[in-house]
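As agreed, record passed on underneath.
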Amino acid sequence: MSLKLDLKFFYSWIACSLSMFILSYVWHAQVLNDFLKIPYPIDVFLIVSTVVYLGIGLVLTTLTYFAKKIKDSFKYGILIGGFMGISIYAITFVFGISFSAAIDLKYIAVDAGWQMLEQATGGLVCGWVYRFLFLREKRQKMLA
């Protein structure tokens, strides 16, 4: 199966990445105040985070496109996003990339759950945008 890179793909990718970045920012900057613990300039962190979330969004969007059935694209997005969230959390946990130095089972459960929710939301947005644009394109072809 080949991946057709069209506007639906790019819009889905950007919407997915943006939604995850916003959720991450709200969680870490507003709810937990984790940004106070960053030992380097915040603009560097935000630039790197933007690149990372664009990468995560690209992978999530690509996987959602490969697994897609148009009517279930948002379900695939949620499933793939949730799996990616757990995978990303596991990688960051193993490498010790965290805002917290303490290892507490409650903290791990909440943080892993949040990461899963964040990426699942990105997948939902990806699938929803794709489906919306697909149906819009289909309607335009019928009218033409």
Summary: Residues 105-143 form the longest helix (39 residues). The mean pLDDT is 87. The chain is about 80% helix and 0% strand.
